[in-house]
Amino acid sequence: MTLQACLLFAFMLFAIGIYGILTRRNAIGVLISMELMLNAANINFIAFAHFKAIDATAGAIFSLFVIAITACEMAIALALAITVYRRHWHLDVDRLTELRDPDV
């Protein structure tokens, strides 16, 4: 596999994630799309570390930090989604207007 193939694969994953964020109305679907985008970034880190870096472990270590941060972010986001669902009985992000700033 070449660097160009890895970058093309990461770009396609990132594009699918962007499309999912822009078209989904369900909060869980938005979170999954965001996870796809972060995985595309991880593929880029690993690909550049493998093909271009002097020390190939640098990309892997940075990718592990991104995975750890993503796991924490998803745990908090799912806790918020469960709380919103228990309160409103839906997860439609367009209908959640009470989270908006009243001054805007």
Radius of gyration: 17 Å
Task: Return the string of H and E elements.
Answer: HHH
Helix content range = over 70%
DSSP strand content: under 5%
Compute the number of strand runs: 0
Largest sheet: none
Distance between the termini: 49 Å
Secondary structure category:
mainly alpha
Describe the structure.
By secondary structure, the protein is mainly alpha-helical. The protein has a single domain (3-88), classed as Helix Hairpins (Orthogonal Bundle). 75% of the residues lie in helices and 0% in strands. The protein is built from three helices and no strands. It has helices spanning 3-23, 27-51, 57-88.
List the helices and strands and how they pair.
Layout (H helix, E strand, L loop, with lengths): L2 H21 L3 H25 L5 H32 L16
List keywords for this structure.
Helix Hairpins, 104 residues
Q: Nutshell version of this structure?
A:
The protein has 104 residues and is mainly alpha-helical.
